[in-house]
Write a structure and sequence with these properties.
Elements lengths: L1 H10 L3 H21 L4 H4 L5 H24 L5 H37 L3 H5 L1
Helix pairs in contact: 1-2, 4-5
Length: 123
């Protein structure tokens, strides 16, 4: 209602137009607040490739730990345990290699930016 008074006083807008504008604004705000929900992907933090690889590495380590525990509990035979362990270890090697490649490329990019200064090249 305050906005309607301002519109009438400053712009000489008729009362019915100012009141209509206030009602329309209130409806738009109501719809936005109660009916428009952000997409879940907008709320989720964006993960880098390195974050994904580190999470995968941690999962593999957890699986290896669980496998060792279950083998000791007698759930798996020695042959099955060795096959699953070798498979997880091979997967871990691949993930660790990829983590190393990603971190090296980030280091190279950072050094390339800093290394371009004349003081560093003179040393």
């Amino acid at each position: 209602m305050f906005a309607a008074l301002i519109m009438v006083a400053l712009f000489g807008v008729p009362d019915w137009a100012a009141l209509g504008a206030c009602v329309a604004l209130a409806v738009v705000v109501f719809l936005f607040v109660f009916y428009i929900h952000p997409d879940a992907s907008d709320l989720a933090p964006h993960r880098t490739k390195l974050d994904q690889l580190l999470e995968r590495r941690d999962t593999i380590y957890d699986n290896l730990r669980d496998l060792k525990f279950e083998h000791r509990a007698g759930k798996y035979s020695e042959g099955d345990y060795e096959l699953m362990k070798a498979s997880l270890e091979n997967e871990a090697v691949l993930v660790l290699t990829e983590i190393e490649q990603v971190t090296e490329s980030q280091i190279r990019r950072a050094r390339g930016v800093r290394g371009a200064t004349p003081e560093r090249s003179a040393k």
